[in-house]
Write a structure and sequence with these properties.
Blueprint lengths: L3 E4 L6 H8 L3 H6 L3 E2 L4 E7 L5 E8 L4 E6 L2 H11 L4 H19 L4 E3 L6 E14 L6 E3 H5 E2 L4 E2 L3 E2 L6 E2 L5 E2 L1 E6 L4 E6 L1 E10 L2 E5 L3 H16 L21 H4 L11 H13 L3 H9 L26 E5 L1 H16 L9 E5 L13 E6 L9 H12 L19 H18 E11 L4 H14 L2 E8 L6 H5 L7 E7 L3 H10 L3 H14 L4 E3 L2 E3 L6 H14 L8 H11 L1 E3 L2 E3 L1 H11 L4 E3 L8 H4 L1
Helix pairs in contact: 4-8, 4-10, 9-10, 12-13, 15-16
């Protein structure tokens, strides 16, 4: 408790939330730990007789957190998650805004009922792409031709309503149209989308209908209002050639040149008014929190919030009622802020590159937890652009550590940027302290780049485990080659004692074995799972050799032993059990605990080359 935790790629700030929740007894106990009256936290273990015991390992109390990210949107979200706020103040400000929106703009979500008299309350409107039939060139409204109301999904094969040709979506070309853009105040060519269905309520009962001419006139009235207002819509991030970004796609981004093109004109009007009248930062936070649910990424047939990590515009868009969605979000935020874990002054948020972290002293951090970007998994600055256009502060993508062809960054540039970040982390971390790196990428070249960056920065990798997050990312769920489980890398900064001794023994055999002894002290002695002992990979001879070589190379020192000499010396100096090496005091503990399990679980190998594959 009281230690400083640092997250250099903080995203939405969950490291800060977790650091504060370490002081919440109920939360800690919900994880399966026991918390005593004095705040001692214990976990269940088995003694040498196989009896379950509670072993103390921690203390209850919040940790302090320094949270950093390159993206202004990330630190805006993170700061709001970690800052105390009066629930009453949040509710009062939200109620005032909702009352204004309903009174001033509620009419944009009204529609006439089929009885011709009653006025219905719109929940959402379905918009459909329009395609061209390759046989007769007539317009095909995708919803009418391909969506099955009975099945509740889009059919893979469907027919042209004009000529009867058998069609599949992938073989169709978008129909386009030229319209007057009321926000850009000029004509604009884009992919054609039309409203096809309205879901609404009258006196508490839900109905669905096709849009009428009166509904179309409402949309025209909204365009007139937008044309009379001065609204800011930012050009998309890159305009060289035909693309504005690496995730630009010709098929569904044609005509998407500004951020407002990701919204219907109706929803952009309501969002703009909500943003202008937000009285406290948390209200603007709530507005940004619903953006993915009320823009064109929200598919009628997909899940809530659209696909994460991409700027995909659906062929069937569900245009949700912004005021309704905002009301639901406020209720969830009020509930979340009812928790007592947020404390004043225990988190700091900064927005800068992790490659050069200002205003943090060397050796000032007790622990680092990071989930950094991995290769080209996600184009962060591009995905954040929609949010940041509301903040009017954009990510400086020059030091962004990703692989991105538009930014002219390949694996080499990515590794160089990650190395700078890890070097800065190494400098800030106290000697003898630890860093956890969560890794998720199915490509071995990226895994190798991360390992090399860690070692070049000076860290010594001590353990690699798998972390099953249960809920996969979009790419983990949909990609056959994706890693379903994340890797958790534990690495430490060698303490001052080893570094001082190594300066005297550098390049000698004594220096080699001093490092190995110090490294073995840091490694887990015994790991069991479901009654089986797991192999601790880092205790195997080839990985001990790898860490020793990296330690020497990073410090510019010649490695004095060959692999064969190292392996022979390892066997002479240290005890071996199940292919792992231990210090004398460790082997006794291992032997005791080894007797409590049925068998040794075979190591899950990482295939890195031909020999390890065999």
């Amino acid at each position: 408790p009281g230690d400083v935790v640092f997250d250099g790629f903080c995203g939405t700030g969950m490291t800060g939330v977790a650091a504060q929740m370490c002081g919440d007894k109920t939360v800690v106990e919900s994880l399966g730990y026991r918390v005593d009256k004095d705040g001692t936290v214990s976990q269940q273990e088995s003694d040498e007789n196989g009896k379950t015991i509670w072993k103390p390992f921690s203390k209850l109390g919040s940790r302090r957190a320094v949270l950093n990210d390159l993206a202004p949107m990330a630190t805006f979200i993170s700061a709001n998650y970690n800052t105390p706020i009066s629930t009453n103040q949040l509710r009062r400000a939200a109620d005032e805004l909702i009352t204004f929106l309903k009174k001033e703009w509620g009419w944009v979500y009204e529609t006439r009922h089929s009885d011709g008299k009653s006025i219905g309350h719109i929940h959402y409107v379905v918009w459909s792409d329009v395609f061209l039939c390759p046989s007769c060139t007539e317009d095909i409204v995708f919803f009418d031709a391909a969506y099955s109301v009975e099945a509740g999904k889009v059919q893979d094969n469907f027919h042209c309503p004009h000529c009867g040709s058998s069609l599949v979506k992938s073989g169709l070309e978008h129909a386009t149209e030229t319209i007057y853009d009321p926000i850009l105040k000029k004509s604009h060519r884009r992919n054609k989308q039309v409203p096809v269905a309205i879901d609404y309520s009258v006196r508490g009962k839900r109905y669905t209908k096709a849009p009428t001419e009166e509904d179309i006139n409402t949309l025209r009235k909204i365009d007139t209002i937008l044309a009379d207002e001065i609204l800011v819509s930012h050009p998309m991030m890159h305009k060289g050639g035909d693309a504005w970004a690496a995730i630009w796609r010709a098929g569904y981004h044609f005509g998407v040149t500004h951020t407002h093109h990701f919204y219907t004109h109706r929803n952009f009007l309501i969002l703009t008014n909500a943003w202008k009248r937000a009285e406290i930062p948390q209200i603007r936070w709530a507005v940004t929190a619903i953006l993915n649910y009320v823009n064109k990424k929200q598919s009628f047939t997909g899940g809530g919030g659209g696909m994460p990590g991409v700027l995909y515009i659906a062929s069937l868009v569900q245009e949700k009622n912004v005021i309704e969605v905002f009301e639901r979000k406020i209720r969830s935020l009020v509930s979340a802020f009812g928790n007592e874990f947020r404390q004043k002054g225990v988190t700091i948020n900064t927005t800068q590159s992790s490659g050069v972290i200002e205003r943090l002293d060397s050796s000032s951090i007790d622990y680092i937890f990071v989930d950094p970007p991995f290769g080209g998994n996600i184009m962060y600055s591009e995905g954040s652009f929609l949010w940041e256009s509301w903040l009017k502060v954009f990510t400086n993508n020059v030091p962004e550590a990703i692989e991105n062809p538009i930014q002219k960054k390949g694996l080499v540039e990515y590794q160089q940027l990650m190395t700078r970040c890890f070097q800065e982390f190494f400098r800030k971390l106290k000697p003898g302290r630890w860093m956890t790196v969560e890794f998720h990428n199915s490509q071995n070249r990226v895994w190798n780049a991360i390992q090399e960056s860690l070692q070049y920065a000076g860290f010594v990798v001590a353990d690699v485990r798998t972390l099953d997050k249960k809920q996969g990312s979009f790419k983990q769920v949909t990609s056959g080659g994706a890693v379903k489980q994340d890797l958790v890398i534990s690495a430490y900064k060698p303490n001052g004692g080893l570094e001082d001794r190594f300066k005297l023994e550098a390049g000698t055999e004594d220096g080699v074995w001093d490092f190995v002894r110090t490294h073995l002290k840091q490694l887990p002695v015994f790991v069991s799972k479901d009654g089986q002992a797991e192999i601790v990979a880092e205790r195997q001879n080839y990985l001990l050799f790898d860490r020793m070589v990296a330690f020497h190379v990073q410090r510019g020192v010649t490695v004095p032993l060959s692999a064969a000499e190292f392996y022979a010396g390892l066997t002479q100096r240290f005890s071996e059990r199940d292919g792992m090496f231990f210090l004398p005091e460790q082997v006794a503990e291992y032997d005791k605990k080894r007797m409590t399990v049925r068998e040794v679980l075979q190591l899950q190998l990482f295939v890195t080359d031909e020999s390890s594959a065999i």
